[in-house]
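Revision sheet: structure tokens.
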Amino acid sequence: MTQKQTLSFQAEVAQLLHLVTHSLYSNKEIFLRELISNASDACDKLRFEALNNNALYEDQPGLEVRVSFDKDAKTLTIADNGIGLSQQEAIDNLGTIAKSGTKEFMGRLSGDQKADAQLIGQFGVGFYSGFIVADKIAVESRRAGVPAEEGVRWVSGGAGDFEVETITREQRGTSVTLHLRDDALDYLSTWKLKSIISKYSDHISLPILMRKEEWKEGEDNKGGEMVTTDEWETVNQASALWSRSKKDITPEQYAEFYKQISHDQQAPLAWAHNRVEGSTEYIQLLYVPAHAPFDLWNRDKAAGVKLYVKRVFIMDEAEALLPTYLRFVKGVIDSSDLPLNVSRELLQESRDVKAIRDGSTKRVLGMLEDMAKAETAEDASEEDKGKYAKFYAEFGAVLKEGLGEDFANHERLAKLLRFASTTADTPTVSFADYKSRMKEGQEAIYYITGETLAAAKNSPQLEVFRKKGIEVLLMADRVDEWALSHLNEFDGTPLQSVAKGAVDLGSLQDEAEKKAAEEAAEVFKPVLDKLKEALKDKAQDVRVTSRLVDSPACLVASDGGMSTQLARMLKQAGQKVPDILPVLEVNADHALVKKLESSEHFDDLAHILFDQALLAEGGLPADPAAYVKRVNALLV
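Predicted:
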């Protein structure tokens, strides 16, 4: 006998439905992901219960999800042949939002059964996402193992109540029929539905079936249209690649999957595929690309890996799962612990996410370390030996950002950095390489930053280092000076910019040289005083230096101060920078400097010395026209 009754929703239903349809799901098409996920979940539950009762499969051992639509009726149906619902389950689980049948199912499990049921998730309010596009939802279901006469139909417009009645249903499982609103009729399209399934549900482990379409010619071969046939086809891959064992996946399959998720035509340089177990359980499949995207330097652009929860796609570019300096990494992270309705805001606050972030960061750095080790490994192939140099040319500058962002991995990052130097024209020198070549008695790792590699290489500040054969690292990336401000030493050896503070070569400078420099400073003091007065608006100090050999002057920053180069970079980025005056160092032995003592154009010559020192480090005079005028006057 058919029983029909009208029941009221739980008191909070109106509020929660509003949340679901307006806040929780900002992207309308997510409703299809949710309903397919629920259908897959129902099949997983049947598979689990059938372990102890194989009769639950009835005459349909093959589990599947079917998606179909009726343009005339304006309906879209998602059907499964999973565990199904009894009438009481329909009342309990569809009449009460935020109560999940799956949650109660998991609650009945204990001991080792919980591990066996790891694929079964809690989907909560996902069913109600259908009201994003529908003004009425009808559910027909029959629980596996019960007679056909004990089926149930549940119907609601998503307002205050719902109707439930007993029906005869031969088919085991559940069908959810959405009566679409007029603004959602574009979902009555095979192409549209296939594209959404491909985006969100391609890796559901069950086949998702849709009816095939074929072209039907019009009368007399005039015109024609696509028509739906009675033949069904699988429209998803029906297998989550990352959930498979590594030994079952070929390098070609890994590379093809990377191309699919990244839209990159080149194969990746490296990848890491791991199942992490413990307090936080997740699978990570992470890739290092072979080349940088055009928007790599846009730190505000959303970037990151794809997030799945139990093989259900949640979001692209989940930036909370990796630090910003690893924004070039592509891949998938599939969590067993996060809720399906997780938002970007919740990702920022979750302890599980922090554990995933830390673990994934270490995994990426491990990949980079393996590539770096292959550079010098005797048994490495030529291709592997060149991978790290290729990576560093594309992403090295971004990696340096980690020095200011990731203090926990400072040492690992420092070991991965590479630079050009006064002995190497390309960025191949590591801090460890440099240390192995340090002169006896050398107490610091010396480096210089410049606007370009050529500017750094030809800087006057390097003259005394060249004279004494001391290697200096050359840094020409815009991020270098900022990054190095967060790294004071490497493996116990301090880092020293040759353009900051007075040059002190310690034991590398003999006593005679030190004494000569002191005497020169004393003899030259009257000229220094006049230079300080002439350049009081440009230089905070003027002093004699021993770092110059061939050049008359150079600019340096005070110890711990901001260099003129960093100040220029920050100004170009629109940031406020305090007025910083550099120190002018002069070579007392240079003919031009000696000429100052007797020159009648002292002030002009002093400004020319300063502006030329500024030009030598890649800057521009504050008043270029005045500089040219002074030079021309002296030439005439």
